[in-house]
Write the structure tokens for this entry.
Amino acid sequence: MFENGQYAIDYDDFERKVADGVTMLILCNPHNPVGRVWTKKNHLGEICMRHHVLVISDEAHGDFVYKENKHTPFARVSKEFSENSITCTAPSKPFNIAGLQMANVIIPNDSIRKTFTHALDTLYLGSSNTFGFLAAETAYQYGEEWLDELIDYIHGNLEYLTNFIDTELSPIKVIHPEGTYLA
């Protein structure tokens, strides 16, 4: 759905669909590829709670939000949402270290975490990459200034792109992303 120049969620349609037996929602927050930083997650979370829908919140772009916007992790909205969610983050998007295969999975609910851990162990997927771990630790500990400068630089590129399209390709309009590096 498109509303006020941005992509939006049609909550009535969403509720009709999850009421039909959906058991899991994969939420991309901020959204890839549309760049939307979701702000009304409380309504989405209430619908999921009402219909017993587990939320997997992919927040890999959460560190890459333009300054006029604020990323709030889905699990931080409320204790109930936290207990009904799995949050996935990674330094791969903001720090460009995808090749080192490092991600974080945050599961506050003990029962869900035990089920997840059992599945990882059964499939032999529970070990991490030593180089990826060191790169992630370094990025999170020392990379904030670099990331801020990168976001400013890419925002400048976005403005350049928007100006070019507005002047040279006027029938085409750029939907301004609130986060991520995609337009």
Remarks:
- The radius of gyration is 18 Å.
- The longest helix spans residues 144-168.
- The chain has a mean pLDDT of 93.
- Residues 84 and 142 are 32 Å apart (CA to CA).
